[in-house]
Structure formats: structure tokens, C-alpha cells
């Protein structure tokens, strides 16, 4: 099929996205799916956040989804989770809750759009029982030291006998000054590994959660923080060795954390996942598979069945984005150039220079062609745009695609200076 035919088929299979009410078609298409995965082509685009928020509201209200799980660290997201659930120990304001997002890139969750979502969730939860409240959780695993501190704090507060074992396990990491790469090098080249200690602690906390304790979610939090410690330890060791193991460890961890949340919420639990397209779009539909890489989208389809999952990719033709020019650098409002000729985003634009929703479907033969699909990271160089495109079979990667013709940078909280 040539590109002109593909553009024609995009016109036939898409609907205009002129208002949030048009998202109802996606809610209907989700059907009885247990897992809905909502992507984004960058971590700094306002429209991706706001559209996912409006879609999530509808899924929660009309389809009874149990929680949101995002590409964020467990400890910081748990602070926002306590806020949206009106918990007794919750921060007083959403801004207070967002102060916990102090790890670079802070703007991913310390932004106006996430604050609006949190306020909506808090209001929605107000008159619901504790068991019915919709939560907000982080699936990621970069918070090794913060997670260890959270476990110690919780065990101290509950006078738990496991405290001694936890302190012993985490003392192993003390010489590395909260530097994951330093630990990884020592573990790899000097065989100074803390693996055995953190695995034993996780096993202990997993057994503890089945006891009769007053705050089951706090117990779950301690267990997941220990899981972060186990997998982050593996992640930093794998980074030093190189290759794709670190990616696979991270995405497998995120699915492990999701599985624990599904079990915690019980039979009939339903999850909405917010992550970058590179995580929620099935890796087998890209060149990642050839490199031996897996991702969240692939793993949840394999574990829950494709019929029980619905993946929605997001993309844009041009606009602005919040990103940085190197890791740890100040965030900037950067231009997003017009999509490369014959890329997926270019063909969506040529099919209609307006916002639209495209229903792909695994059996649709017209969208089985492999095309370049843009992915923007937290580190972004608009001048070298050609390297940001991932060869993708769109019908296999997603079930639907939300296209915004022109997007704008999200609005970060004043955590760090924004360069314009």
C-alpha cells in the first residue's frame, strides 16, 4: 500500500476531536477492557495530559475503573495518592502533595495539569467509602533511596519487629552516597552487592501484609517500596554492564507493581495506565523486539490477554514542549518541528489538519504498514529530529490513536526556572 492510500484510509477510519465529548467514542471502544493504557509522545505536552485526564474521568465515572498508575516513582505518587483519597495523613493541599516530586524531571508530575486531575479525583472520592476511592500510584523504580527511607519510617511508626532487618538491609547501600551508578559499579566490578539483603526484606514484608493490620494500603506501600529496592538494585547493576537489560528490568518492574495493585484492589479491579508511548505501545510492533526489549504494553497484553487491554497512543504534528537539552539540565520550552515527511504524524496531518481520533484495530489491513512514529524524551534536541522516530506497525502497537495537530508545552509548578 502506498502512502496516498494510507492517508485515504486514515480519513475513513478517523473521527474529528473538536471537544472533550468526542472522547466518548473511545470510552465506548474500550468496552469491558480491564487495563486501559494511555500514552504520550512526550513528557512535556499539555494536551496529552489534559486529554488523558478527560478520558480517565469518563472511564472512572462510566466504567468503574479502580485506580490510575503512572510513569512516576512510588513514594512521591503515594503522597499525591493520600491527598486524592482524603487520607488522615494527607498533605493539606495539592501543591503540598506535589512538592514530593522533587526528582528531575520534576515537571512530569509537578505541573498544573496533574494538579487539576488530583483535585478532580479528591472531589470524586469525597463521598465514597475508603475501599471505593480511586487511587493515584507510581509504577517506576528510580526512587531506591527514597523508597528505603519510606520503609524505615513506616516500620518505625508501627513499631514493627521487621525494622532491624530493614535497617540491616539498607545499611549495605550507605557507602554509595545515594548514587545508583556508584553502587552499580561497585556491585559489578567489586562484587559488593546488596541483592541478598533487599530480597530477604521484600519476602518478609510480603508475608507481613497478610496479617491483620489497620492500614492495608500503608502495608502495600511498604511492600512496593521494598520491591523498588530489589529491582532498582538490579537496574543499577545492569546499567554498568550495558545492553538492554536495564530497560527490561524497569518495564518488568512496572508490570510487577501493576499486578500487585490489581491484587490489592481485588476481583474486578480495573486500571488506567499513563506512560510514554514507548512503554504502553506493544514493543513487538517496533524495532525494540529485534533488540530483545520488552515493554509494559507487550507484557500486559501477554499476561491479561489482548482482549482485556486497550492501548491508545498520542501524537502531534508540531508545537512546543517542556524538555531539557541534557540530563539534569534546566527545563526549557522547546519547539516541536513539523513532522518528517511520510512519518505517521505527517500522514495524520495530511489526512486532516485538525485534531482527530483514529481507530486502528488489530485486524485492519490498512494500518499494518511500518512507518516512523515520533517519540520525544525528557532530553530533546529539536535540531536532530530524525533520530526521534521509531519504526512502528501502528495497528499492532495500539488499538487507537489520538492526534493533536498543534500542541503546547505543559505548565510546570515553580520548582525550577523555566527557560523560554
UniProtKB/TrEMBL annotation:
**Stored Pfam families:** Erythro_esteras
- SUPFAM superfamilies assigned: EreA/ChaN-like
Q: Which CDD domains match?
A: Ere-like
Query: Which Gene Ontology terms describe the biological processes this protein takes part in?
Result: response to antibiotic
Q: Report what the protein is called.
A: Erythromycin esterase-like protein
What high-level taxonomic lineage is stated for the organism? Bacteria, Bacillati, Bacillota, Bacilli, Bacillales
Q: Which InterPro entries match?
A: Emycin_Estase, Hydrolase/PRTase-associated, UCP036794_erythomycin
- At the top level, the lineage of the source is Bacteria
Amino acid at each position: 500500500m502506498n502512502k496516498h492510500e494510507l492517508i485515504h484510509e486514515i480519513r475513513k477510519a478517523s473521527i474529528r476531536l473538536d471537544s472533550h465529548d468526542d472522547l466518548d467514542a473511545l470510552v465506548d471502544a474500550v468496552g469491558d477492557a480491564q487495563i486501559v493504557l494511555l500514552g504520550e509522545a512526550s513528557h512535556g505536552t499539555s494536551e496529552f495530559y489534559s486529554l488523558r485526564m478527560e478520558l480517565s474521568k469518563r472511564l472512572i465515572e462510566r466504567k468503574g475503573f479502580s485506580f490510575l498508575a503512572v510513569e512516576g516513582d512510588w513514594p512521591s505518587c503515594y503522597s499525591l495518592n493520600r491527598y486524592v483519597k482524603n487520607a488522615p495523613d494527607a498533605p493539606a493541599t495539592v501543591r503540598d502533595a506535589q512538592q514530593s516530586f522533587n526528582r528531575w524531571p520534576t515537571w512530569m508530575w509537578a505541573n498544573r495539569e496533574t494538579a487539576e486531575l488530583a483535585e478532580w479525583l479528591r472531589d470524586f472520592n469525597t463521598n465514597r467509602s475508603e475501599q471505593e476511592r480511586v487511587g493515584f500510584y507510581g509504577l517506576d523504580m528510580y526512587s531506591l533511596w527514597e523508597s528505603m527511607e519510606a520503609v524505615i519510617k513506616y516500620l518505625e511508626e508501627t513499631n514493627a519487629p521487621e525494622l532491624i532487618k530493614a535497617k540491616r538491609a539498607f545499611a549495605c547501600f550507605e557507602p554509595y552516597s545515594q548514587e545508583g551508578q556508584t553502587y552499580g559499579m561497585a556491585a559489578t566490578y567489586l562484587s559488593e552487592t546488596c541483592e541478598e539483603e533487599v530480597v530477604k526484606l521484600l519476602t518478609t514484608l510480603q508475608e507481613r501484609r497478610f496479617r491483620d493490620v489497620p492500614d492495608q494500603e500503608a502495608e502495600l506501600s511498604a511492600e512496593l517500596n521494598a520491591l523498588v529496592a530489589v529491582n532498582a538494585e538490579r537496574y543499577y547493576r545492569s546499567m554498568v554492564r550495558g545492553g538492554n537489560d536495564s530497560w527490561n528490568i524497569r518495564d518488568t518492574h512496572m508490570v510487577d507493581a501493576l499486578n500487585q495493585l490489581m491484587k490489592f484492589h481485588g476481583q474486578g479491579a480495573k486500571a488506567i495506565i499513563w506512560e510514554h508511548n514507548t512503554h504502553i505501545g506493544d514493543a513487538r510492533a517496533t524495532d525494540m523486539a529485534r533488540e530483545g526489549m520488552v515493554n509494559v504494553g507487550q507484557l500486559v497484553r501477554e499476561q491479561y490477554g489482548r482482549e482485556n487491554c486497550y492501548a491508545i497512543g498520542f501524537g502531534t504534528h508540531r508545537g512546543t514542549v517542556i524538555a531539557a537539552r541534557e540530563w539534569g539540565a534546566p527545563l526549557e520550552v522547546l519547539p516541536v518541528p513539523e513532522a518528517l515527511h511520510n512519518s505517521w504524524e505527517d500522514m495524520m496531518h495530511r489526512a486532516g489538519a485538525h485534531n482527530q481520533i483514529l481507530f486502528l484495530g488489530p485486524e485492519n489491513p490498512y494500518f499494518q504498514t511500518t512507518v516512523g512514529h515520533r517519540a520525544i524524551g525528557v532530553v530533546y534536541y529539536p535540531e536532530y529530529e530524525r533520530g526521534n522516530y521509531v519504526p512502528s506497525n501502528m495497528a499492532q502497537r495500539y488499538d487507537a490513536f489520538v492526534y493533536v495537530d498543534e500542541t503546547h508545552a505543559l505548565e510546570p509548578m515553580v520548582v525550577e526556572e523555566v527557560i523560554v
